[in-house]
């Protein structure tokens, strides 16, 4: 039996996936969550073979949730679902150790096959998403610039960003100014939006 935790903030989609996977004799959904933080906690509690994560979830996205999960439960394999595959997202997902990447338009029967493959140790990336990733621009931003933009998207102030990253406010402003220049943006919020649209954060 392949044990799975499912996390998606859209209740209708999540419950449909859970109900349909329950019809597969070798798949068992042991828990479900509507946000990334709960997904992390549930995986720690149940230690499933697979966690199936939506890309866009509050308060952290599926990639960040997967990063935390794989750090604390390295034997669990992560599969990411997305409705909109932004350029760069697949690269981030692969770098985070995610072993499956599927669009939400995937049929449940195909999803079940993917989950079985991933549980058996194989990697699966939807071909169309892979093609998009190959055409994506490389990210010109440093890790610290990305951290600052990621927090900017949460509407954190410069002071709050500095406190979270354990940096001086002047240093944070320098990172944000550099990110604005590299993305040709007029504000830190615009730079964060560019980075999000490109899938860099």
Automatic annotation (TrEMBL):
PROSITE patterns for the chain: HTH_LUXR_2, RESPONSE_REGULATORY
This protein's UniProt keywords: DNA-binding, Phosphoprotein
All residue ranges annotated as the HTH luxR-type domain in the record: 134-199
Pfam families, sorted: GerE, Response_reg
Gene Ontology terms, MF aspect: DNA binding
PANTHER family: TRANSCRIPTIONAL REGULATORY PROTEIN DESR (PTHR43214:SF42), TWO-COMPONENT RESPONSE REGULATOR (PTHR43214)
Annotated protein name in UniProt: DNA-binding response regulator
């Amino acid at each position: 039996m392949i044990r799975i935790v499912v996390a998606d903030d859209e209740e209708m989609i999540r419950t449909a996936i859970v109900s349909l996977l329950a019809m597969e004799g070798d798949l068992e959904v042991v828990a479900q969550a509507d946000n990334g933080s709960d997904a992390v906690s549930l995986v720690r509690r149940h230690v499933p073979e697979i966690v199936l994560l939506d890309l866009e979830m509050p308060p952290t996205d599926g990639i960040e949730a997967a990063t935390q999960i794989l750090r604390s439960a390295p034997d669990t394999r992560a599969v990411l679902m997305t409705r909109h595959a932004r350029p760069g997202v697949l690269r981030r997902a692969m770098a985070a150790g995610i072993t499956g990447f599927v669009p939400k338009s995937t049929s449940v029967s195909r999803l079940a096959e993917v989950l079985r493959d991933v549980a058996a140790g194989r990697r699966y990336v939807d071909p169309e998403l892979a093609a998009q990733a190959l055409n994506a621009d490389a990210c010109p931003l440093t890790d610290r610039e990305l951290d600052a933009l990621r927090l900017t998207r949460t509407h954190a102030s410069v002071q709050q960003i500095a406190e979270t990253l354990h940096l001086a406010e002047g240093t944070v402003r320098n990172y944000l100014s550099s990110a604005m220049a590299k993305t040709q943006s007029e504000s830190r919020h615009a730079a964060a939006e560019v980075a999000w649209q490109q899938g860099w954060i």
